[in-house]
Write a structure and sequence with these properties.
The radius of gyration is 16 Å and the shape is globular. The longest helix is centred in the first third of the chain and has 18 residues, at 7-24. By secondary structure, the chain is mainly α. A hairpin with a 3-residue loop joins β2 (86-91) and β3 (95-97). The chain has one domain: Four Helix Bundle (Hemerythrin (Met), subunit A), CATH 1.20.120. It is built from 6 helices and 3 strands.
Length: 158
């Protein structure tokens, strides 16, 4: 059956699998919202802390990253898109968020790369990048001073 699914259908099936598993086997009623990401953040951190990540966490990264991406897409009116850097959720026109990368980093590196920090940081990234889009051809008069300003340039698609 999975061979018949498109990549986008597989992403959505993986996200639904996380919902089902959380509800049926972990007794957690989660949705595609901030509460769901808070639960995911704790789940990933517990896996990291217990060493239950394994040598190749790609399957777990794909499944949990699908759920994180679907939370971002539904909460911030985003859409999935394949980019030259892999699958991303595009919000606010062209701000690319890479949930699979973030899940992998959180699994491997722990709380310093929290998936919740990405999720809750999306509005600030949108606000910052939208503020600069009034004059897209104009060069900035001075470099961005905030960390969000410095990082947002990494999330803009070119």
């Amino acid at each position: 059956m999975t061979e018949d699914l498109s990549p986008l259908e597989m992403i959505r099936a993986n996200a639904d699998l996380v919902l089902r598993e959380a509800r049926e086997n972990l007794d957690q009623d989660v949705g595609y919202d901030e509460a769901g990401v808070r639960w995911l953040d704790g789940y990933i951190q517990r896996r990291h802390d217990s060493g239950a990540v394994g040598d190749d966490p790609s399957g777990l990264t794909n499944t949990l990253g699908s759920f994180l991406g679907e939370c971002i897409a539904q909460s911030y009116n985003g859409r999935w898109q394949e980019t030259e850097h892999g699958w991303a959720v595009i919000v606010d026109g062209d701000l690319a968020v890479f949930p699979f990368n973030k899940v992998h980093k959180h699994l491997v590196d722990g709380a310093a790369d929290s998936v919740l920090s990405l999720y809750t940081g999306v509005p600030a990234l949108i606000a910052h990048t939208s503020a600069g889009s009034d004059k897209p051809d104009a060069a900035p008069t001075e470099p961005p001073k905030s960390i969000v300003g410095k990082l947002s340039s990494f999330f803009r698609r070119r």
